[in-house]
Structure formats: structure tokens, C-alpha cells
Amino acid sequence: IRQLVKQRRPRGFPPGPSPIPVIGNIMSLATEPHVFMKKQSEIHGQIFSLDLGGYSAVVLNGYDAIRECLYHQGDVFSDRPSLPLFMKMTKMGGLLNAKFGNGWIEHRQLASNSFRYFGSFQKPLDQKILEECMFFVDAIDEHKGKPFNPKHLVTNAVSNITNLIIFGERFTYDNCDFQHMIEIFSENVELAVSGWAFLYNAFPWIEYLPFGKHQKLFRNAAKVYNFLEQIIRRFSEGRVCNFPRHYIDDYLNKLDKSAGDLGTPYSRENLIYSVGELIIAGTETTTNTLRWAMLYMALYPNIQEKVHKELDSVLGSGQSPSLADKKRMPYVEAVLHEVLRFCNIVPLGIFRATTQDTLVSGYNIPKGTMVITNLYSVHFDEKYWCDPGTFSPHRFLDSNGHFVRREAFLPFSLGKRHCLGEHLARMEMFLFFTTMLQRFHLQFPPGTVPSLTPKLGMTLQPLPYSICAVRRQQ
Ligand code: HEM
To answer: pTM for the whole thing?
Structure first.
């Protein structure tokens, strides 16, 4: 067995921690895999490898290694690994998990055109986000300063922005069917990096075991796809060719136009996958960022006070924030950047794979190798950040209080597959955060301080907490 395990690492492949026979290093990923990987990089170097049972993965750590691969070798590091789990979920089609090639290009282009078109053609997207912000703060107000868990409210409000683009409509905050779909979908985001998921990727035959968390993952996925199929059908009723109302219409028009073309990547199935991916990629991430931001504001009242001061000095009384104010709010920008750096919403990015054999830092990495981008290690890279373990918005400000961009800041990743929704997410975070803090002071219920330990998954989110949003005197 020893010999077999040794052979799994090809010649010239990056070194890594010793694997346990059969299951390799999978067990080491059970708790805080991003932290484990950063520690391993201190032993084996910025580029090292892990044995994940039946296959190996290369882990990239620190800003220099990630820039070298994702940016300087952009074409090489832009694929997604054909893991059994992803093959089962989306057959490597759709958008986020699509193989690098024509299908991915077409789906990415269609989605980014929809974001631009359905955002700016009818009514500027920031105006629509502001309308949602008002529903959001009014719903918070209903708690009258009493403790509440903001998770569902933030999720509903944030998902409504992608709903507008995809379906042309927002869903009310009491739409239980949609909420249930998001809930089990985000449970899958968590399960996708559980030990069971890694085991399934190494030993796909465990599909036939009657137990295991992977079974839950499959059941959730079936329910989500079923739900999406139904609402896609409902929202495509009344479609008129050449007059798309939203992303669904746009996609179906493309599908119609490509009828008869055998090589087309457009299909009803890929539409369901892309809609699901856009909903979850857009909701889970932005929601978690805002939930962390609320938590840190209540935890650090002095930082919150500075945010309030800036809001009050830039906005007149009764004047809602707008995107145009962003330039005049460097402190708010610094706070949101520090939340993204410190909280590491997507700590390991989304798994990549190589499109061809390549050489990096003297190591041979064959075509089709799975690549893990440890974005957490970029944000805690001592070469680029002073005292990275401290939450300090000031690192994004110069001595005059002006906002400064930092190179080793990659919450949206880098290269050809970098986050498609970055622009949208930035607008949402700014508008939701400023609208909320303009109206409320956030504080924990007396005598309580919530845990800062994240809940593990593809994304890091705070454990459920209660908070009081008390109306401010203005
Ligand atoms: C991909 C982060 C919001 C859509 C990604 C990736 C990261 C990320 C790290 C992986 C890129 C890679 O492969 O290296 C975030 C964060 C967000 C956010 C931190 C919010 C704070 C959004 C929003 C949307 C979105 C609002 C759209 C509605 C996508 C899509 C991909 C992606 C479609 C896959 C891109 C591709 O494979 O070509 N995001 N994201 N994201 N994100 Fe986001």
C-alpha cells in the first residue's frame, strides 16, 4: 500500500504532508482546512500537494504563488476539476462549475450581459437595490430594537437583487417556498466540502451506501433543481422573442436560436444549473459578508461610531445613501474591505484545475490536476499585511484618511474565473450597509457576546447570533 500511495504523486510534483493509506490527507481537512493548509505551507512551501484519497490536489498559498498561477498563467489555471461530486451535480455544465471552453465562455457572457442590461436598461440597478434596502430596514424596524437573528432577513433581501435580474421580480419576505430552497441549497454549500464529499470524490461507489452526509447532499440538490425547473417555467410564460424581460427570457431566446446546432452549450438543463449557481453564488457570499459586518459593528462600538460620523457628515438628514456617495465615504469602504479580508467569505475560493501540463516554481503540474486557491492565506500573508490577525479598517486608509487599494486583497479571486458578480456585490454591500447603519445603532443584547468562530463550508459564515438594531436619533 505504501508504494501505491507514493506513486499517487507524479514525478516533479509539489511535496506535501504524509498521507494515511487509502484516505490520504482527507482527515486533516475536517476542521478549518484553510488554516491547516496555511500551516502546511510553512513546512512544505507556498505550493504543496495533498493526497485526497484517490487523487492529488495542488494547494496554492500566499499572494505571490496565487498571482503567479491565476494571473501570469491565467489560461492554464482556469478549469474546474471533473470531480465525481461536480459531475453528478452539474455534469460540468452550467457556468460556475463549467469546464473551461466554449460552453463556459457563452454562459459567462450571457450572465454578465444580463447583469448589465437588466440592471441599467430599465432602471439603474443601484436604484433597484435602494428600493430593496428600504424594505430591508423597514423589516428590521419591526423588531423595535429587540433582539433578533438577522440571517433570514439579510438572505431574503440580498437574494432579491439576483431575483430581479434572473426573474425580473423580487420575492416578498414571507415566500416560504423560495426561502426553503435557499436554505437547503446553502446547506449543500456547507456539505460540498465535508469529509463525506471528499470521500465520495475519492470513492464514488459510496453513493450506494444507505447512510452518509453525501446522501443528504443529493436529496437537497434534487429538491432544488425541481423547484428551479418549476419557477423557470412560470417566469418564462408570456415570453416574446427579441424582447427579453430578464435572464431567463434571454437564455431561452439563445436556446431557441441555437436549435438544431449540435454543438450548442445551451440547454434546459444548463439553464437550471446556471440559475441555481447565480442564485447561490450571489446570495450566500454577500449575505455572509453583511452578517459579519453587523457582528463586527456591534463588537467594536468605536468603529461603528466612526461609520455613523461619516454617514452623518456626508448625507444630509433624511437623505438616503447612493452609489455616488461612495467616494466620499473612505471609512465605510475601509470597514467593508476589512470585513472581506478578515472574515474570508470564500476561504479556499472555488476549486480550479489545470488545462494543460505546466511548470511552476520548478514543480511539474500535469493537465487536469485539481488546484485549491487558499485565499485565506493571501489575506493573512505576513509579507503583505502587518498584524493580519487584528481587525483594523485603518490598514485601508492612508495618513490623510483616504482609501487605499491593497494588492494582496483577493476576496473575489483573480484571473479568468474571478468572481462574475464582484461589481454587483460591491454595490449591494455598500448600499445595504450604509442604509442600515444610517438608521440603526447595532448592539448585542445586554450581557451577551456571540462567538466569532465561523461555521465551516465552502463559505465561512457566523454562527447564528442575536442583535438589537436600535433606531438612531438624527
Ligand atoms: C466566483 C467570491 C458575490 C457570482 C467566485 C469566486 C470567489 C467569489 C472567490 C471563485 C473564483 C475562482 O474560481 O477563483 C465572491 C464574494 C462575493 C461574491 C466574496 C460577495 C461578497 C457574487 C455575486 C454573484 C457572484 C453577487 C452573482 C450574482 C459568481 C460566479 C462565479 C463566482 C458566477 C463563477 C465564475 C466562473 O466560474 O467563471 N465568487 N462572490 N458572486 N461568483 Fe462570486
So the answer is: 0.96
Buried/exposed 290-320: b ≥16 CB within 10 Å, e otherwise = bbbbbbbbbbbeebbebbbebbeebbeeeee
Q: Which atom of ligand 1 is nearest to the CA of 161?
A: 28
Q: How far apart are CA 311 and CA 308, in angstroms?
A: 5
Gap from CA of 91 to ligand 1 centroid (Å): 20
Binned at pLDDT 50, 70 and 90, residue 417 comes out as: very high
Count of residues in the chain: 474
φ, ψ (nearest 5 deg) of residue 434: -70, -40
Distance CA 383, CA 385 (A): 6
For residues 116, 118, 121 and 123, what is the CA-based torsion angle, rounded to 10 degrees?
-110
Residue 217: all three cell numbers together? 447532499
Q: Does residue 274 line the site of ligand 1, with CB under 6 A?
A: no
Bridge partners of 455, per DSSP, are: 461
**Which of 73, 414, 419, when mutated, tests ligand 1's pocket best, judged by the most ligand atoms within 8 Å of its CB?**
419
Q: Report how far apart, in Å, the C-alpha atoms of 84 and of each of 80, 89, 191, 192, 216 are.
A: 12, 9, 14, 12, 16
Query: C-alpha grid cell for residue 79?
Result: 478549469
Rounded to an integer, what distance in angstroms lies between the CA atom of residue 232 and that of residue 169?
Answer: 12
Across the beta sheet with 370-374, what order do the strands follow?
Answer: 47-51, 56-61, 370-374, 352-353
Contact 252, 271 (CB under 8 A): yes
397 φ/ψ angles, rounded to the nearest 5 degrees: -125, 145
Tell whether ligand 1 has an atom less than 6 A from the beta carbon of residue 293.
no
Confidence tier at 241 by pLDDT (50, 70, 90): confident
Q: What is the ipTM of this complex?
A: 0.99
